[in-house]
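Final report, Chapter 2: Outcomes

The project's central promise was a pipeline that accepts a single protein chain and returns its three-dimensional structure in a standardized token representation, suitable for archiving and comparison. That pipeline is now operational. To close this chapter, we reproduce one record exactly as it appears in the project archive, with the input sequence first and the structure output second.
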Amino acid sequence: MSANEPAKPTPPVPAPPAKPMPRKLPTPAAAAPVAAAIPTPSTDAAEWGRVSEDGTVEVREGDTWRVVGQYPDGTPDEALAYFVRKYDDIAFKVVALEQRHQAGGASAADLVKQSNHLIEEATDAAAVGDLAGLRDRLTALTSSLSEATAQEAQQAKELVEQAIAERTALVERAEAIAARDLSKVQWKQVTAELTELFETWQAQQQSGPRLSKGISQQLWKRFRDARSTVDKARRAFYSELDDAHKTARDAKTRLVERAEALAPRGVDGIPSYRSLLDEWKNAGRAGRKADDALWARFKAAGDALYAARAEQAAAEEADSAPKIEARQALLEEAKAVADERDIKRARALLTRIQRQWDEVGRIFPRDKERALDDRLRVIEQALKAREDVDWKKNNPETKARANDMSSQLLEAIEKLESELAAAEKSGDKRAVKAASEALEARRTWLSALGG
């Protein structure tokens, strides 16, 4: 450092804090308003501070002076100005806190906490100014916030109680799910319910009031245990389901391979394929993706067999066209059976047609063959009915019984005619009516017997 260069001032040394002296509490009228001016060194420094010859700075608090530090390398005004700025910093914080209170919206408990912190900062502070006044203003602010703080505390307590009730409700719902018969539940629905409960729990934990550690851990343990019970049952279910799917998948894979091996047999492989289809239905589920893939292969193997049958049926139907025409011609010829009065000649005609019918051979498709057979069967049944009636009329035993019955009826009729004549002669109306009714009945029976 050159001889002409001025020496740098030594930084001021704050004095150790002195024990604050007891002082009277200010009256409400003495409390400084929020808009009170912050003292400046030029006007208030001399009132609240003084500097000794050795640069020691003191602040007045009530009737006592307290050393706040030293400023040896500056003028008294500079020394006071330095410590006044320290005071201004604290006063600015006090004003800002009061303005926050007047603006509203701030938490009373937070304001009280900051006020108490500023009271500590203004106590024994290394600053020059009305420190006692600042503390009075902060004390008044704290007092005015006491009721609001109590209300906030009550509201906070109620919010905590509500949060506990809501968390408890979530726990009870989770425990109710865990208490179900988990072997019979729909796991998709249960998983969705439990996921919704867990997301609600997380949302309440993030946005809700903070619960005490003991209660929070107790509720979480219950929720976690219920969730663990459900998760364990779900894992067991899906493990068993995976095993069942694997068993079904292996069984269906073998069925597919057996079905594909039937391809060289063509139409003859269809009965075996139907048996495999029955086994497929009883093989169980292999999972949607595996089932779809295996079924596509299994169905393709069956489609190949049925395609071969369709080709064969088309060929057989083409071969059957002349046979169908031949049987239709025989049906036209068979119409003459009903017109033939001589039953023996009608039977001979139908027998010849039936023999020619069989010589035509099988017809495809089978439904067309059945339709033609049904038409011929109608003609056959009609002729058989005629033969039955003829047999009953021409049967010797039947005729003998009919003749004997006719003789008896003729004798009865002759007797009843005599009785009717006698009743008419005697004028017995009741006897006449009885004889007439009996005679009419006997004549009807005789007519039925062909007499």
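Archive annotation: Residues 377 and 383 are 10 Å apart (CA to CA).
This record, like all others produced under the grant, will remain available to the consortium after the project formally closes.
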